[in-house]
Amino acid sequence: MVTETITAQTLLTGLRGFSSIPPFPNDVSCVPLLKLSFKKLQDGDSEESNRLFEASKQLGFFYLDLRDTLEGDSILEDVDKLFRIGEQLFDLEVEEKQKYDFSGQKSYFGYKGYGKAIIDKEGTLDRNEFYNVSKDDLLALSPPLPAPSILAHNRPLLSSYIHSSHSILSLLLTHLNQHLHLPPGTLTSLHRLTAPSGDQVRLLKAPPQDPSAAQPALGAHTDFGSLTLLFNRVGGLQVLPPPSPASPDQPPEWLFVRPLPGCAIVNLGDAMAKFTGGLLRSNVHRVVPAPGAQATVPKYSVVYFSRPEDQVLLRRLGGGDVIPELEPGDTEEAVPSREWVLRRALGRRVGGNVDEGWSGTEGMGKGR
Questions:
Q1: Among 125, 133, 189, 328, which is most exposed with the fewest C-beta within 10 angstroms?
Q2: DSSP string covering 175-205, please?
Q3: Is the pTM of this model over 0.85?
Q4: What average pLDDT does the segment 148-167 reach?
């Protein structure tokens, strides 16, 4: 049967890459994220849709199980290839990679090397390298940027990953749109694939690190776009849950997010918090050394960042009865998406404006 063939292939694709690294330990505290089924959301399952809305309000982080769907299998196969491309990319000589650092041109696309960004307001340098690939570049919406041959030769693969990621995240936006009682298509109309935006693919590498050193690779922050689709196999991602209503005076503790085969980790960013007046949550997170034996291997990640179109104003949306209205006398900043992204992204680079780089939506909504 066709279903059996898809399931067998899904199992193989979902586990690929996990068997070659040490297992994530069972003796560390992990956040109990909801695991949502992409298949059920595709099928319009109302209970799964409700779970998505609750996860987006409570923590803004959840697993998305992509198995048992043709579109999910396709992106998992693309991700597996991109992990291998990331290994080859970061094996290039430093001098070669630095040719593609475009931060001097006020661009956050291209290469960022070790220690070229700050992870806190004290100026501590980061411990990772990454390469940002522009969606607009790959879809010919902007002039092409120079790129290493390993990326230039794999533009079709990167384009396939972008199309799949955008499609998956558009489905999530459609469900959220319904729960927010917004006019049909409101959220997806702010995130059109063919419109200029800050959407990007990120390939990332963090080196092995002794957990006792306890230096984060990436400090506490919120994402500054709409939705993030993360694929990782080695741990290190942590979230800081909001204070518990049952123990409001007890400070929350950082908790690991366990990587799961066949699943993406999805989180909401600042744009969704701004669009909803803080009803949906953009949660603080960071990246620290992986726990246990996983700390002995490099950490690679493949990410898609979805952001509103460049000219969209980041402010609460009207047209529904769920998003809270501004209190009398209150005002809110309405900044264009492109300006917000540049402010946050380049503010974290060495020599940038630290206050702008680290000022997100942490204070929006209850319990922030």
A1: 328
A2: HHHHHTTPPTTHHHHTS-TTS-B--EEEEEE
A3: yes
A4: 98
